[in-house]
Amino acid sequence: MEGDSSLLEEATAGPKLEVGEEGGDLENNTLHQPLLKRNRALSSNPLALVGAKVSHIESLDYEINENELFKHDWRSRSKFQVLQYIFFKWTLALLVGLLTGLIATFINLAVENIAGYKILAVVRFIENKRYLTGLAYFTGANILLTLFAAVLCVCFAPTAAGPGIPEVKAYLNGVDTPNMFGVTTLIVKIFGSIGAVSAGLDLGKEGPLVHIGCCIASLLAQGGPDDYRLKWRWLRHFNNDRDRRDIITCGASSGVCAAFRSPVGGVLFALEEVATWWRSALLWRTFFSTAVVVVILRAFIEICNSGKCGLFGKGGLIMFDVSDVVVTYHVMDAIPITIVGILGGILGSLYNYLLHKVLVVYNLINQKGRIHKLLLALTVSVFTSVCLYGLPFLAKCQPCHPSAREICPTNTGSGNFKQFNCPDGHYNDLATLLFTTNDDAVRNIFSSNTPEEFQTASLLIFFVLYCILGLVTFGIAVPSGLFLPIILMGSAYGRLLGIAMRSYTKIDQGLYAVLGAASLMAGSMRMTVSLCVIFLELTNNLLLLPITMIVLLVSKTVGDSFNPSIYEIILDLKGLPFLDANPEPWMRNLTVGELADAKPPVVTLCGVEKVSRIVEVLKNTTHNAFPVVDERVVPPMGLATGSTELHGLILRAHLAQVLKKKWFLTEKRRTEDWEVREKFDWVELAERDGTMEEVAVTRDEMEMYVDLHPLTNTTPYTVMESMSVAKAMVLFRQVGLRHMLIVPRYHEAGVSFCSVTHPLHNYI
Quick one: signal sequence residues (predicted)? Predict the structure, then answer.
């Protein structure tokens, strides 16, 4: 049942899956094609829910392969070597945090200065009443920046487009998303994010920072790019799926921390949103990585506050410090807070639904070629530029209040009162939100003790515009994040609700904006704990904890009743398989034994197998592992003679290594321990290497034998055939399995064992 079975594949998508089709080229299934075809008619047969067309995406071996080589290597390690291994794990975590913090600072400062010089140049045209020239300059500069980012993604690293979080989530769930963590992807992600965000597009650098942190972690774990890897022995210990997964989890946490300066929030984001498998040691290392990021960011914040970071003194680091606001609320404030949560859930699920439709259309456009991808990105850039420049002219100029705590008006640098086209002593509230960088827009709309700063009409225009931009911008061929667009939309309707409720509540309008942003993020992304901590660390006010928790819980509950989270929708559109945490009800009524009966018999190998048989199996199957079974063995006392022994499971990659190294025997016999250690090393076997195309076997070698016992994992996870599919799915996900062996309750001569692969891990 191994490679041909799809035991729970995408089971969480609902009971509407057809039985897998026969035939077809597995290698022609692109990431944009769904792995399963859905039938509108519900099937009453639970076995019809199983099976699908297999994708060429390969899954990952997170399970420790406990063969004789591993056991010998582990027993032979001294205490110093064990401590050295642990030390290098923490060193990699340190380097991940350090490099992520430095790159995040570089991106922030580059964006703030590029966008700042662009805005200052346009301000000069506005001050001289040369409005059309200012529009042309503003639009032209944004087109060039967008073109720079789009060309990088389209021509050099297509996988760098988008946020990257869904792909990271799929990887940590056990699917090896191709070309996602290479050095080219990292470079394009960095400079593409700078270009796209500087162009004023409605996207953030928070999602790309998560992807950047994961790229850094992956490159460090494998010793550098593929063509220039370091071959240091101790570095090779981390070039396996299990350790690489842990390091990439540290990278994801560091990316969130770098985006929001939220170390605990970064750890909880990885735990709640992207990581499938977790343990206490990994918790400490991720926290250590985020702590390093915070130290780096704090150091550069101090430098930027002294005016050494260019035009914008705050350096573009998102900080919404409302610690000076006295938060007072009463029992009756629970009503407007609940309304904020309900609206966030409804609007978040509506945004997910509409964005899904837009992405389907964009996918059709992008499939037509590179030119269409570039034209789509440039069209969105022109539309965004015209709106950001033209709409502030619709707003009425407001007189500066004498009690304003900031300079009013201002046109240079960041500020809460942009003069734009207004006379002296007046400011344009809509320009304060639109004619600035996205980070400054968030700081301005989150500003506290400014109840009269923004007009209702300006906030409505801002909200509608960013709803439109949030739908049409995401999906173009540039690095883009969803955090900031959702924060801007949510803060706008939150502040509008604060204005409507100001006669009934004493909560500051800036805090309503914070709650609105949190509710929309929970309604769209369906995160609660990590978002709560992120917003608490951003606002630096623990008094917000109760009302923030209420808003997040309400909005997530409302959103879950309509559709999945935005990241799950993107995973489905990309055709990336993902095993959900909760089994479906039909899985309780189906056993793994019944599932095995619906598929062809499992392909097994003998403990000492002929080379020709191994070559035949590798050529004619796509299974990633094969049970090793010995017939007619001499059993322990008390068992019948001629018993069948299930020795374990051998990986396809290890069989390819055997053929590549020509480890053949002229006679059918068991080998000694020293023989296998002369040819193979456990670290080498843990690395992903070796394909059939690299192996050439002569006709004489076909008649030789291979002893598979030393390379076989003797402790695979094995379950009884009576186990329910639901219980098996939970075991797969929580332990991080790729393969599971099903053994019958009664075993007779001629009855074979069954082997089931991970539902997501049929991609060999």
Answer: none
